[in-house]
């Protein structure tokens, strides 16, 4: 089974991934954890290029193709082999981030981004996508040192959020929005409940 986590910046996605991994560890369930862009040697090198604040000249098409390239490597090197071994794969961001950030945020269009990514993911789509549903104006995003993407405007992040919301409705139930609670453990229990209902974990 393949599960991905999505959300805007500073919504507590990494905390939720950590709490899920702790739950799985406590209950003796194994998983392969990856993040995007990155998680293979080559994908991490591509990540550096994408997020480098010096790369102000990067065109949006270059950016979209680099995310797809990083993904193509991760799918073939890690995700597919793990799924073939019958393992549970949990990925921090995946193709829905490209659709939301490049498709809606950069206004390249969701359809174009899906087209670019089709050969990259090569049919490897998540069984479930957990969307941490917090809009940018409510997010707990702190203004730490921002990478190239994080330097975008509020309007950009609003478009990204609206894009995710739009994609939920065309995902046939694959993308499940979870409203974060003030208590991170409550949020984690909601996520675990969805994964259990779907028979992905025990
Ligand atoms: P990262 O520091 O991993 O962000 P986060 O902790 O929020 O997951 O940086 C990844 C950045 O890249 C983030 O701003 C989202 C963006 N992104 C895209 O624009 N398109 C994509 O396809 C992916 C995977 C990420």
Description:
With 202 residues, the chain is an alpha/beta fold. It is 51% helix and 11% strand. The chain has helices at 13-26, 41-51, 60-84, 95-105, 110-121, 154-169, 184-197; strands spanning 2-7, 32-35, 89-92, 128-132, 175-178. Strands 2-3-1-4-5 form a five-stranded parallel sheet, with helices on both faces. Strand 4 (128-132), helix 6 (154-169) and strand 5 form a beta-alpha-beta unit. Helix 3 crosses helix 5 (110-121). The site of thymidine-5'-diphosphate has 14 residues, from helix 1 and helix 4.
Distance between the termini: 13 Å
Gyration radius from CA atoms, angstroms: 16 Å
Mean pLDDT across all amino acids: 96
Ligand catalogue:
thymidine-5'-diphosphate
Number of strands: 5
Biggest pleated-sheet summary: 5 strands, parallel
Question: Largest sheet, order of strands side by side?
Answer: 2-3-1-4-5
- Please write the string of helix (H) and strand (E) elements: EHEHHEHHEHEH
Please describe the topology of this protein.
Blueprint: E1 2-7, H1 13-26, E2 32-35, H2 41-51, H3 60-84, E3 89-92, H4 95-105, H5 110-121, E4 128-132, H6 154-169, E5 175-178, H7 184-197
Parallel strand pairs: 1-3, 1-4, 2-3, 4-5
Helix pairs in contact: 1-7, 2-3, 3-5, 4-5, 4-6
Bound molecules: thymidine-5'-diphosphate.
Thymidine-5'-diphosphate binds at residues 9, 13-14, 36-37, 67, 92-93, 97-98, 101-102, 149-150.
């Amino acid at each position: 089974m393949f599960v991905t986590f999505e959300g805007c910046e500073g919504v507590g996605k990494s905390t939720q991934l950590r709490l899920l991994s702790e739950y799985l560890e406590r209950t003796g369930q194994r998983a392969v954890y990856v993040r995007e862009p990155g998680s293979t040697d080559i994908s991490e090198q591509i990540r550096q290029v994408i997020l480098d604040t010096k790369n102000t000249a990067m065109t949006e098409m270059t950016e979209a193709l680099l995310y797809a390239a990083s993904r193509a490597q991760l799918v073939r090197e890690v995700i597919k082999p793990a799924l073939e071994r019958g393992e549970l794969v949990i990925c921090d961001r995946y193709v829905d981030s490209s659709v939301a950030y490049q498709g809606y945020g950069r206004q390249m269009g969701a359809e174009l981004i899906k087209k670019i990514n089709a050969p990259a993911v090569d049919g490897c789509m998540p069984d479930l996508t957990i969307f941490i549903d917090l809009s940018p104006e409510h997010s707990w995003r702190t203004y730490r040192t921002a990478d190239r993407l994080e330097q975008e405007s509020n309007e950009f992040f609003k478009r990204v959020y609206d894009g995710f919301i739009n994609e939920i409705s065309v995902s046939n139930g694959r993308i499940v929005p979870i409203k974060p609670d003030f208590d991170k453990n409550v949020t984690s229990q909601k996520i675990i409940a969805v994964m259990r209902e779907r028979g992905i974990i025990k």
